[in-house]
Amino acid sequence: MRFTRARRLLARTLMLTAAVVLAGTGTAAAQPADLYAKVVVIGVPGLTWSDVKASPELTALVDQSHVGSISVKTAGPHTCPIDGWLTISAGTRAWGNVPDQPCGDLPAVTGSKVADWQTYVDRQAEHHTGAPIGRLGISRDRLCGFGPGAAIAVAKPDGTVANWSPDFDATKLASTACGDAIVDAGAMPLREGRDQARKQVADLVARARAADGWVLLVGVGQETADAHQQTLVAMQLPPDNGPRWLTSDSTRRPGMIQLTDITATVLRSEAKSVDPAGSEKAGPLDGAEIHFTGDLHTNAAAVIDDRLDANQRFEQPRPVLFAVALTIVGAEVLALVWFLLRRSPASRRTAVFTLLLQGGFYIAVFLAQATVWWRWPSPGFSLYAVTIGISALSAVLAQVFLKRYAYLGLALAAYLLLLLDGVLGTPMQVGSMFADGPVIGGRFYGFGNSTFATLAVGALVTAAWAAQKLIDKSRVQAALAVLAIGGAAIIVDGKPGWGTDFGGIVALTPAVLLMAWLTWKGSISLRALIGVGLAGVLAVSAVAFLDFLRPPEQRSHFGTFVARLLDGDVSDVLIRKLQMAVQFFSGPAGWAMLAAVILLMLATVLPQRVPSESYREFYSSLPMVRPTLLAMSTCGVVGMLLNDAGVALPAIMAGFAVPLLVAHLMASHQPATVSPESHLVQES
């Protein structure tokens, strides 16, 4: 009877989780007025906000436009002009250039066909992009193209082009022969002639507007393969309802769009089915129609500075992450060496503090965004100083108020902080060291792999603490506490519009269920283990299917994956994710991470083999230690096997959990202080 009640309770919990995850997932982006008769996309590879600042002609356009930055990340490691134009052609990220080679010139048009077109078709199959190049050209009637890049964008699946001119023709654009149009304004020159190129771009915008065009001026790629990677210029003229900020449902960030949004905007949900090369099938458009949102802006200089600041926010975190990690790990190594050599109280306290410093980093990486460091002088150094400062402050506060339970304070703070961030729409993820920002193009909203790893550790440690408080009174209440605390993390991590993290809930759900079962029963049979696994799969599947039932433009990663699965189009996605996971083993660092992760996981199931007496005593000291460590291992294993982060995900979890555990063990096993008087007594 008791088992039956528990099963009913578990079923209700899973149903409630699925319902809450899918509730209320609208977007805050304002809808634009009806588009003008012509959408005229003017693409300029390499057009930066520094160009706008340096050009009076382009600066004058700012207050006449909705503005933003555009992420030009494509399928390959570099976004050459060919990659950008092919991506616009396909509506999904395409691969155009040859790795480790210069970008090269765009292919010519010979006999109404793009030269070497089949080479680019084959390249999509070779790299499993699934990009159906030619989709834009076949989906839009009276689509005009002007310039070499535009020929690639408007080409049909066989590479043929129609209604195309090698140079811009304002008369043709204004005629009924042209509906929407793609214009290649040419890549910005690297040095000489850049001022003249800026003036020509501004003049081209004016001529396109004269043809009653709804003009979209965007960077479509970098000038060269080794160009500085940054987000580029995006302007839409004339502005509907006054100049505001560009956005789209694919980014959900004011002032940010991505390259594939251009295709979705031109097509306005009229994309035709085009089969890409290889065994893959074409998926839905990656982008969404461009909208505008936010308050009016009327100060061009302030807008330009804001966009330049945004680039700092997107570019600095990854390089600074290495410097911060080197500082913290270096301090830990020195402190631990000192402790091993001296074994003094001072060396022990120092070692414990540096370990907690690393735990504090998992809080600082998010709280740093509240300081607006990207607007400070020397943004890179400012981010470094702010992150180290918040890490140290977090460690100090945890030690002062919680003593040897400082680890709990840091885990609880990370858990609550990320719950709040998720509910607010993840504002602390933008520009954080743990976010794949717009330059990388990995994720524009929601929780990434590193954030999920932090949330998972925080949630499981917090759940363990709450369950430990209740377990002597009632194992059922303790298990319910685990489900409540872990379930909150699953909901926030997985809910579309909050964490929107499909891979995260796949890994965290079975871990929480396993931890709850072990808390309730104390042990688990093979049959129960299989049941827990199936329950996790069913819960995740229910969330994904309910998201799939929504309109395509409102689906998150969950529903999109189901749509691809039902269409038989998941092979390219799975292959790309597998390739990303395998990349970690291209050098010795990845194998070292794997070895360390395996050893740590073995320590959770074979504690008696660990050569640390304090760890063995700790493992058996409290009822919730074993369920917590096994749940962490489960989360890490599932995340490693089913996530494109691969071994990096459990490694990041270990980077948060292990220093906290070691700090707790060191703080809990301090030798008793012996006074001089006691020595006298012993001698006498």
Properties at a glance:
6% strand; eight-stranded mixed sheet; two-stranded antiparallel sheet; elongated; disordered N terminus; 684 residues; 10 strands; alpha/beta
Structure report:
This protein has 684 residues and is an alpha/beta fold. The protein contains 26 helices and 10 strands. It has helices at residues 2-22, 49-54, 56-62, 81-90, 117-126, 135-139, 148-154, 170-174, 194-210, 260-267, 300-315, 317-342, 345-367, 379-402, 406-423, 449-471, 475-494, 502-521, 526-548, 557-566, 571-582, 588-605, 613-619, 625-642, 648-668, 676-683; strands at residues 38-43, 66-71, 144-146, 164-165, 181-184, 213-218, 232-237, 245-248, 256-258, 290-293. Residues 1-36 and 672-684 have low confidence and may be disordered.
